[in-house]
Amino acid sequence: MLNNTYSQFSMLIGEEAEAAYQQEVRAEGYAGFRRLLDGLTEAIKAAADADIPGLEQALAKASRLFPEPVQFSPSWECIWAELEATLTAKKHVLSSISPAERSGEWQVIMDNPQVVQEVVCYPGLDFHDAAYLYAYFRPQLEKSEYIRLQKIQTVIQELGR
Length: 161
What we know:
Layout: H1 4-10, H2 15-28, H3 30-46, H4 52-65, H5 79-96, E1 106-111, E2 120-125, H6 127-137, E3 146-151
Antiparallel strand pairs: 1-2, 1-3
Helix pairs in contact: 1-3, 2-3, 4-5, 5-6
């Protein structure tokens, strides 16, 4: 469910409304800006094919209204680039896998075969959750790491007693 701050943001029309919203969020500080980010993140997570252009515009508007998110928190110095990279990766997934191929069970796997560390696997996902996880982690890959989004065709699973 999209939060109220993001809902207000997505309905802004005109410079006067944008300026009032900007002032309201700045007056509230960290909490107000955090709700906007949470709303944008949830919108990216829930985005279907037709939602991508609107989200691209929303991110552009958000970065224009709040060009220095580091004022709210040092951890948000690169938040616009991070959200844009996530949205770009999700757009790539949605454009690469047709709606007819999206049913069934999906998983996301990440590994770096060059180092001794555990493989990370997110199994048993529906397509949209898997697409978001792929999109979220894809921009963060380090040298020699890989990420895989794959559909499970056959599963044999047993439970221990």
